[in-house]
Amino acid sequence: MTPDPKLRAALEPAWSELREQRLLGRIAEGRRQRAGRQRRTLLAVGAAALCGVAAVAVVGLRHRAPVAAGRAAPGAPHLTLADGSEATLASDGNVQVEEQTLTRVKLRQRAGSARYVVKHDPGRDFVVRAEDVTIRVRGTIFSVELRGDTVAVTVERGRVEVSDRLRARELVAGESLSLPAYGPAAPPAPAEEAPPAAAPVPAAAPHGAAHPAGADLLARADAARAAGRPGEAARALEAFVATHPADPRTVAALFTLGRVESARGQWEAAAQAFDRCVSARAQGPLADDALAEGAQAWQAAGVAARARADARAYLAAHPDGLHAAAMRRLANE
User: With the C-alpha atoms ordered 193, 198, 204, 209, is the resulting torsion angle positive or negative?
Assistant: First the structure.
């Protein structure tokens, strides 16, 4: 029902400037309240969004895939060499460059872990030394971890030669080896040592008889070297070579035999072992060292002609090799 205009006019207060100001004030206050509510709503929505992003970030950090084994974490310190080879150090890694030329790179790893990516170069000798353990390569990827009294070497690609004071072994991709960081000193040559009559070197097993297991013979040789019994080690190595001539470990066994015989002053036997090592694998990773050490062993044995022959063979095959300077001197004597 529409109210009577006269009654409405009587009930409503008269319009005045004061009433107008009050009305405008209420309108402005209402606008301010609505704006405040909108701002609070926007802030709440923004805070919720930020919390969601933070939660996602935390989840992402918690579930981020770890760095693959053998790979350097992003941001890890790098040592880049002149030939393009690299060493990536762990947080505790300590590697120093001792020599860097066109034909030789020599690094000393003093602590921690490092991964090496070595550019392939047949004319350059690349050596990493960790305490008493030496790693020699031409081009490969491998890691070295020095922990207390142990040096662990792991090969990712290619092959490396790992040696300590009394042994040398070859590792290929996928293989690992742990050695004492401080190997035993080479034992002095005994005044007189003759092999026992009951343990001759077996030239061939009798028909139907089983050969000793190769792993057993090598383990026996390792134990004898560690215990300072070079004669026993030499016999075990000779037995391994004689009974397992086709075994791929024969080359390393012959090289180790040469080292063992050198350590006890049996120079002619050492020279023969090194020469046999070269004959077994003339192009292998131990061939250049075997040639050089064989030449020096022949010289120590007093067989100058054989020493010069091995030295010249080394220079013909490795004119810029690690031992080239020593072999040139020996070849001209």
Answer: negative
Q: What is the dihedral of CA 109, 278, 246, 264, to 10 degrees?
A: -70
- Say if CB 314 and CB 291 are below 8 A apart: yes
**CATH top-level class of 78-180:** mainly beta
The answer to whether domain 214-331 has CATH 1.25.40.10 is: yes
* Secondary structure (3-state) at 149: coil
| Amino acid in position 113 | S
Residue with tokens 């001759």: 200
pTM: 0.42
Q: What is the pLDDT of residues 277-325, one digit of tens each?
A: 888 765 666 777 888 888 989 988 888 888 888 888 888 888 887 788 8
Q: Where are the alpha helices (DSSP H) in the chain?
A: 5-11, 17-63, 214-226, 230-243, 250-263, 267-280, 287-300, 304-317, 324-331
Residue whose token pair is 């690992």: 176
Residues 150 and 306: their CA atoms lie apart, in Å, by: 39
- CA geometry: angle at 162 spanning 157 and 168, to 5°? 135
In this structure, the number of other CB atoms found within 10 A of the CB of residue 247 comes to 15
Please compute the mean of the pLDDT values over residues 326-330 and round it to a whole number: 86
Q: pLDDT tens across 114-138, in order? A: 999 999 888 888 999 998 899 988 7
